[in-house]
Write a structure and sequence with these properties.
Elements: H1 8-11, E1 20-23, H2 33-42, E2 47-50, H3 62-66, E3 70-75, H4 82-89, E4 94-97, H5 100-111, E5 116-119, H6 126-129, E6 133-136, E7 142-145, E8 151-154, E9 157-163, E10 167-178, E11 183-184, H7 193-199, E12 200-211, E13 230-233, H8 236-240, H9 251-254
Parallel strand pairs: 1-2, 1-10, 2-3, 3-4, 10-12, 12-13
Antiparallel strand pairs: 5-9, 6-7, 8-9, 10-11
Length: 259
């Protein structure tokens, strides 16, 4: 089945207000910027987002966040996103912060049809006991806190029950993809993109290089096309537009050359 659609706007045309989205990316790596921009252009609002972080440097999900289109974030890292922190503390945004590994497994479990699982991560903390601030009232007080979770003992150790995550849509970015939706991710962009793709009921992938079926060695496929419903091929300019969050230069490169 050819899953390629012509444009990003066409790919997200049916995403409604209030939809939940699993969005791939790790920092600024592998972020589906073109699809996010298409959602912004459509004016979709009231979104519930599940992602490792919520964008940075006015790119990625930060575009939707700054426009007030996101109402809830499930993630594991706020980082240097000052607007994210401002909205959270001002009571404009509901935020569920969870351990990064737990987030990854909740996405994978949802995509694999596993409703819940037990993990030791968070036992003995507010992650398990409840009380984490999900929403502030804008005056420094907590208006909504996380509920306590089920704790169970296995072989003398305690574990907390975590629910698998399923979302209405998933937006991901791959280095290569074919018309059947088989995807290959590059390095750290593989951290969350395959998991986000699995969690979405409708998964839309933007690919930097589109190849014909058979153009990807089956052993090289990181995510099979069964998890992907739509594919858009990026232009060379879109594929090359990759930002660097923190640019550093090695000490050797800073040195001067003596004659």
């Amino acid at each position: 089945m050819d899953k390629v659609v012509a444009t990003a706007l066409e790919a997200v045309a049916d995403v409604p207000d209030g939809a939940t989205l699993a969005v791939g990316g790790f920092g600024l790596s592998g972020v589906p910027n073109v699809l996010i921009q298409a959602l912004h252009e459509r004016g979709v609002s009231g979104l519930g987002v599940v992602s490792n972080n919520c964008g940075a440097m006015e790119s990625g999900l930060a575009v939707l966040l700054a426009a007030g289109r996101i109402t809830r974030v499930t993630g594991s890292y706020i980082g240097a996103n000052k607007e994210f922190a401002r909205q959270y503390l001002a009571g404009e945004l509901e935020v569920e912060m969870i351990p990064q590994g737990t987030l990854a497994e909740r996405l994978r479990a949802g995509g694999a049809g596993i409703p819940a699982f037990y993990t030791p991560a968070g036992v003995g903390t507010q992650v398990a006991e409840g009380g984490l601030p999900w929403r502030y009232d804008g005056n420094g007080s907590v208006s909504l806190a996380s509920p306590p979770k089920e704790i169970r003992e296995f072989d003398g150790a305690e574990y907390v029950l975590e629910r698998g995550i399923r979302t209405d849509y998933a937006l991901v970015r791959a280095a290569r993809g074919d018309r059947h939706g088989n995807l290959v991710f590059n390095k750290s962009s593989r951290n969350f993109n395959p998991l986000a793709a699995m969690a979405g009921k409708v998964t839309i992938a933007e690919v930097e290089e589109l190849v014909e079926p058979g153009g990807i060695d089956p052993d090289a496929v990181h995510l099979p096309g069964v998890f992907v419903q739509r594919v858009i091929a990026l232009t060379p300019a879109q594929a090359a537009d990759k930002k660097i969050e923190k640019r550093t230069v090695s000490a050797a490169a800073q040195g001067t050359v003596s004659e």
